[in-house]
Design brief:
The structure is a homodimer.
Chain A lengths: L2 H22 L6 H8 L3 H7 L3 H24 L5 H10 L9 H5 L3 H4 L2 H27 L9 H22 L3 H15 L4 H4 L5
Helix pairs in contact in A: 1-2, 1-4, 4-5, 4-8, 5-8, 5-10, 8-9, 9-10
InterPro entries (chains A, B): Homeodomain-like_sf (IPR009057), HTH_TetR (IPR001647), Tet_transcr_reg_TetR-rel_C_sf (IPR036271), TetR_C (IPR011075)
GO molecular function (chains A, B): DNA binding
Protein name (chains A, B): TetR family transcriptional regulator
Chain lengths: ~200, ~200
């Protein structure tokens, strides 16, 4: 088998596992379902991965990496600190599908397995830290009120997104997600100083 | 069998299902595990419930009812609107266990089943409405800034709790939950007027 074909199989296995974990969770994802979706045989799977847990780890790492890149596109973008956090909060999402990483935190087999929990922990830790950095930068530039706690506010922003998914899925309607985002944005807008309000929004 | 004994069996079945759904989700909860935990035979289960789905519905309704009562104890309590929302946000929780209703929104078999989704939808709909009422009452009393949107802010508050659980479970540490709550409380405190700040906090 050529390197290209091997990579192809491995890639198909990882992508299928990513999808199935998102849709069905860890307990609901059988090795059989992964093989069927990837269109590969059992031998190929065990050639690349020791089993479901190893495949799940590769899939979670990949999903976390993609989420981080998507968030960074907003948080590292142009504009004031408020603009960048607003871009993250309001970026286009398939709200009713929820968050593929947040979803995993409800899976006992994932959170009770330190190896599988690590990509989740690292992703959210990075996200909270990145939002806190953006807010602290806004404060240094005088755009945001000095009294704002960047670390606590960053946790609030990250929680609103994750909790917004929960509310939307319960309602089978994206409206509660959108309301939660608008609510926190309005509270954050009240922390914008006159410098921030007239800031360069290129 | 006496009425008392019948109620005992039914009650044990519902409580066991509540616990198992919280711990393992819908897919991970087998009728066999319910029977074992409840300590009842298969015949008794089918005497009271047509199957797993009917038992899950009874369990979800019960859990939602309990959550609503617990939230109402805080939101219907004494003090200003800010105090009552703060009481809800900071009430004692086993954060790492997460929310038994929020957890269910990640279960495809629950959210894609209109009957099973209904208790989730009703609970969160009630919660957002109740928080919005408390905030609107605070505005009418002049305790909170008139510009605050009670409905959006209520969604934010509910989302912070649900998302806080997600962040805490990813970190295996309640700290991100507590940070998210402190963050939204600080943002909300900035909306408290001089009337609200000197309000009667009986």
């Amino acid at each position: 088998m050529s390197t290209e074909e091997r990579l192809g199989t491995q890639e198909r296995l990882v992508r299928s596992t990513q999808e199935l974990l998102w849709e069905r969770g860890y307990v609901g994802t059988s090795p059989k379902a992964i093989l069927e979706r990837a269109g590969v045989g059992q031998g190929s799977m065990y050639h690349h991965f020791s089993g479901k847990s190893a495949l799940a780890l590769a899939a979670l790492r990949r999903t976390a990496q993609t989420m981080q890149q998507t968030a960074e596109e907003c948080l590292g973008g142009p504009g004031t600190a408020y603009d960048r956090v607003a871009a993250y909060l309001t970026r286009e999402r398939t709200v009713l599908r929820g968050c593929p990483i947040g979803r995993m935190t409800q899976d006992r087999d994932v959170v009770q397995n330190p190896e599988l929990r690590t990509p989740l922990d690292q992703m959210f830790d990075w996200l909270r830290g990145r939002i806190a950095d953006v807010l602290a930068e806004g404060q240094r530039r005088g755009e945001l009120a000095a009294a704002l706690d960047p670390v606590a506010t960053a946790a609030t922003v990250a929680a609103v997104v994750q909790g917004g998914y929960v509310l939307a899925r319960a309602a089978d309607d994206p409206a509660p997600f959108d309301a939660a985002v608008q609510g926190v944005l309005a509270l954050l807008a009240a922390q914008v100083t006159s410098v921030g309000a007239t800031g360069d929004r290129d």
